[in-house]
Design goal:
With about 110 residues, the chain is an all-alpha fold. It is built from three helices and no strands. It has one domain (about 5-110): Methane Monooxygenase Hydroxylase, Chain G, domain 1. The protein has helices at about 5-25, 30-55, 60-110. The longest helix is centred in the last third of the chain and has 53 residues, at about 60-110.
Length: about 110
């Protein structure tokens, strides 16, 4: 049976992964960030499984609140770093898409 301590451990693992994700983003190590995101998702699934079967003591609740606060802080910093990069990537993808549409349009005109 999964106990409250297990939930705290999962939150601690999520916090550790969040810290690693932030470090990877700061170093612009996108490949490592992607791998860490997969681990993060796995821990979220573990958390869902734990949460469905356990209730927390007041002490565990306090610890979880502290961990959540730290996780949120790291995630906001991660967002602040990755948002400009994602915006730039979206612009490049849009530019390539526009270029392909223009090439297709000119190709169609030249075939007439």
């Amino acid at each position: 049976m999964i106990g409250p301590d297990d939930i705290v451990v999962v939150y601690e693992m999520i916090l550790s992964i969040s810290q690693q994700m932030l470090s990877a983003a700061e170093q612009r190590d996108w490949q490592n960030l992607e791998s860490l995101e997969a681990l993060y998702s796995q821990q979220i699934e573990n958390l869902k499984a734990c949460s469905a079967t356990s209730s927390l003591s007041p002490e565990c609740s306090t610890k979880v609140e502290q961990l959540l606060s730290e996780i949120i802080t790291f995630n906001q910093k991660l967002f602040d770093i990755t948002k400009p990069w994602l915006d730039e990537l979206a612009l490049k993808v849009s530019s390539v898409d526009t270029e392909q549409k223009l090439q297709q349009a000119y190709h169609n005109i030249n075939n007439y």
